[in-house]
């Protein structure tokens, strides 16, 4: 018993020393860029802890204190150099030898632990999404629609003697996105396998929580920290335990297939390097699942929260546009979905107004970088762009502090180009998907799926808040990331049950 006590004390001391050394480095940077918060190590830790639960207040404090000049934000992962919009083009266009995007992603998601070390060295799954998947989007529409109808009929079916059902929106949308996405990732077998869906959803929901704790830990202890936390919250082990045997079975029958199925997993197999093993393929598909489920469920939930606040006339105008597009294009096709301009606008406005994070274009500074005010970003530190300053610029977005779901559809009509104001269009004034060559590879697939799902929901259901709720729920913020309230409910009433 005494030995265990002394071992525990020794472990605590080691952890304290390692943490002190790591955070001491975070406040020992040079270059003259001022830091938010009180001076010294204790001031750093105090501000970093506040950033973890209230990022926006730290950003506002920095803007006010330093008059919109570059400043440093303390985080438990290290110092982040927060830059204004004037540096956006420089960071976006900077080569990976100066501002490295993949190194920043690796740090944020702790890929060697949450997935595997090969995700950074050869992310070929992104190339497959940008090329093969985007070329074949039309082929996915029938399967996505079919699965949406089946899944939503089950999820939104009212109980006996009830005319509507109240569901926790975020968790419900996460489950729906996982099922519907995997209809075209793996096919019917896995997308309807409840054990797999439970495992993949748990992975997608908890990975953004696990990764920061691993990142905050001393490097030598990260494998242990990941093992402990993932054992509690749910890591990659459970979904891979199902995915790997499935791929092994599929590879055995694949060569005998005269015609290969139009599935993302098949496209990935066709484009995998010769040395790729089944375990590697499985992790790549885990990566694609995470990107699809995590981001899409957030956009879908936030958009439904806003649609539930619209007037009946505004909701009906969206339905009318959807019906007209389906009639003109002869049913559910990619061309028809491309004409869901108001749904597209709603998704883009949600991305502008709420976003996914409080910062944009996170990069790892490989070499030093001189700033325009005479200060300097030293090598080995993180930089990021102040997203809200860009997304709430009144010169670009009139009445920027109001969430207007029809903002971009109206803008598209004025300039005569809906595509220029489309959900997946990335430019200097819209950054949820990143920008430039590192923009999100799967955004076109996600957009098509989300627009299809929202259109089907609006055609088939009335969406409202529970009785007595008149305002949308507040978001949850963790380590700079923004997630909708996971406990909030919406009511879904089948329109067929409504008495004329």
Structure in a nutshell:
With 500 residues, the chain is of the alpha+beta class. It has 22 helices and twelve strands.
List the helices and strands and how they pair.
Blueprint lengths: L1 H25 L13 H14 L1 H12 L4 E5 L2 E6 L4 H6 L5 E2 H9 L1 H4 L3 H4 L2 H12 L1 H19 L9 E4 H17 L2 H4 L2 H23 L5 H12 L3 H18 L9 H8 L6 H30 L4 H17 L5 H4 L3 H13 L5 E7 L3 E2 L5 E2 L4 E5 H5 L15 H9 L27 H18 E4 L11 E3 L2 E3 L5 E6 L6
Parallel strand pairs: 2-8
Antiparallel strand pairs: 1-2, 3-5, 4-12, 5-8, 6-7, 9-12, 10-11
Helix pairs in contact: 2-3, 8-15, 9-10, 9-22, 10-12, 10-16, 12-13, 12-14, 12-16, 14-16, 16-19, 16-22
Tell me about this structure.
This protein has helices at 2-26, 40-53, 55-66, 88-93, 101-109, 111-114, 118-121, 124-135, 137-155, 169-185, 188-191, 194-216, 222-233, 237-254, 264-271, 278-307, 312-328, 334-337, 341-353, 387-391, 407-415, 443-460, and strands spanning 71-75, 78-83, 99-100, 165-168, 359-365, 369-370, 376-377, 382-386, 461-464, 476-478, 481-483, 489-494. By secondary structure, it is α+β, with helices and mostly antiparallel strands. The protein has a domain at 1-104 and 357-393: 2-Layer Sandwich (Uridine Diphospho-n-acetylenolpyruvylglucosamine Reductase, domain 2), CATH 3.30.43.20. The strands form four sheets. Strands 1-2-8-5-3 form a five-stranded mixed beta sheet. A three-stranded antiparallel beta sheet has the order 4-12-9. A hairpin with a 5-residue loop joins β6 (369-370) and β7.
């Amino acid at each position: 018993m005494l030995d265990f006590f002394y071992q525990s004390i020794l472990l605590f001391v080691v952890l304290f020393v390692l943490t002190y050394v790591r955070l001491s480095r975070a406040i020992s940077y040079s270059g003259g860029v001022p830091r938010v918060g009180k001076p010294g190590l204790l001031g750093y830790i105090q501000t970093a802890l506040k950033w973890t639960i209230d990022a926006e207040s730290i950003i506002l404090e920095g803007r006010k204190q330093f008059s919109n000049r570059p400043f440093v934000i303390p985080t438990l992962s290290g110092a982040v150099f927060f830059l204004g919009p004037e540096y956006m083009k420089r960071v976006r266009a900077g080569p990976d030898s100066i501002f490295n995007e993949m190194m920043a992603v690796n740090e944020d998601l702790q890929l060697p632990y949450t997935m595997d070390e090969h995700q950074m060295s050869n992310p070929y799954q992104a190339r497959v999404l940008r090329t093969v998947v985007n070329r074949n989007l039309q082929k996915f529409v029938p399967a996505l629609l079919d699965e949406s109808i089946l899944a939503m009929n089950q999820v939104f079916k009212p109980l006996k003697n009830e005319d509507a059902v109240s569901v926790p929106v975020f968790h419900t949308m996460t489950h729906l996105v996982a099922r519907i996405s995997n209809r075209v990732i793996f096919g019917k077998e896995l997308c309807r396998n409840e054990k797999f869906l439970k495992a993949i959803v748990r992975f997608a929901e908890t990975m953004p929580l696990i990764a920061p704790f691993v990142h905050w830990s001393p490097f030598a202890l990260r494998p242990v920290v990941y093992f402990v936390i993932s054992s509690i919250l749910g890591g990659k082990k459970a979904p891979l335990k199902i995915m790997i045997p499935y791929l092994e079975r599929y590879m055995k029958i694949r060569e005998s297939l005269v015609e290969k199925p139009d599935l993302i997993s098949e496209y990935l197999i066709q484009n995998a390097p010769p040395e790729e093993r089944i375990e590697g393929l499985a992790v790549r598909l885990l990566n694609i699942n995470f990107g699809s489920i995590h981001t899409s469920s957030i956009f879908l939930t936030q958009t439904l929260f806003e649609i539930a606040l619209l007037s009946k006339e505004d909701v009906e105008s969206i339905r009318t546009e959807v019906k007209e597009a389906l009639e003109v294009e002869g049913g559910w096709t990619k061309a028809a979905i491309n004409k869901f301009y108001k749904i597209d606008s709603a998704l883009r406005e949600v991305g502008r107004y709420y976003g996914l994070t409080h910062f944009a274009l996170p990069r790892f500074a490989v070499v030093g970088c001189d700033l325009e005010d005479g200060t300097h970003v030293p090598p080995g530190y993180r930089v990021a762009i102040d997203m809200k300053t860009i997304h709430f610029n009144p010169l670009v977005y009139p009445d920027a502090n109001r969430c207007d779901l029809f903002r971009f559809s109206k803008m598209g009509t004025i300039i005569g180009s809906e595509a220029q104001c489309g959900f997946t269009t990335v430019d200097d004034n819209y950054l949820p998907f990143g920008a430039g060559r590192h923009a999100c590879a799967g955004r076109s697939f996600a957009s098509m799926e989300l627009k299809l799902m929202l259109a089907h929901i609006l055609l088939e259901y009335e969406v409202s808040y529970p009785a007595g709720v008149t305002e949308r729920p507040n978001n949850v913020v963790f380590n700079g990331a923004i997630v909708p309230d996971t406990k909030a409910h919406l009511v879904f009433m089948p329109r067929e049950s409504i008495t004329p």
